[in-house]
Amino acid sequence: MGLAFDAAGLGAYLQEVFAEVANDFVIDRLDEDGITMRLLVDERHLRPGGTISGPSMFGLADVTVYALVLSQLGRKALAVTTNASFDFMRKPVGGTPLVAEGKLLKLGRQLAVGDVLLFSEGDPRPVARSTMTYAIPPER
């Protein structure tokens, strides 16, 4: 089938549709096997104690699966999260970029399911795992 976007094109599209947060994320790799994204951690992503907040971690996982769906389908900005499961496994390192490794498990006409592992940059042990389901808008 081939990808609808390359990493640069997908990054530009995310900037277009989510300009308010797009600069928080970097696409390091995008290919048929999946995606690697990073959250560029800033003070606003930290919670008391200096660790990365749960909402920031969730945001990276959500954007990662959204990017995977867009990479396959193209300009479908209205694809939305319909289900999310999130397992926190260990404390991420605050002030260090958070890395997401994502892959699509299923891409159907109406639903897409993706899986994401999150890591503190430089540490091979996952800090969290998420599975997300996206609803795909119907063709008009």
UniProtKB/TrEMBL annotation:
Keywords: Hydrolase
Residue span(s) of domain Thioesterase: 49-124
Keyword Transcription: no
GO molecular function: acyl-CoA hydrolase activity
Cross-referenced InterPro entries: HotDog_dom_sf, PAAI_dom, Thioestr_dom
Gene3D superfamilies assigned: Hotdog Thioesterase
Source organism: Phaeobacter porticola
Protein name: Thioesterase domain-containing protein
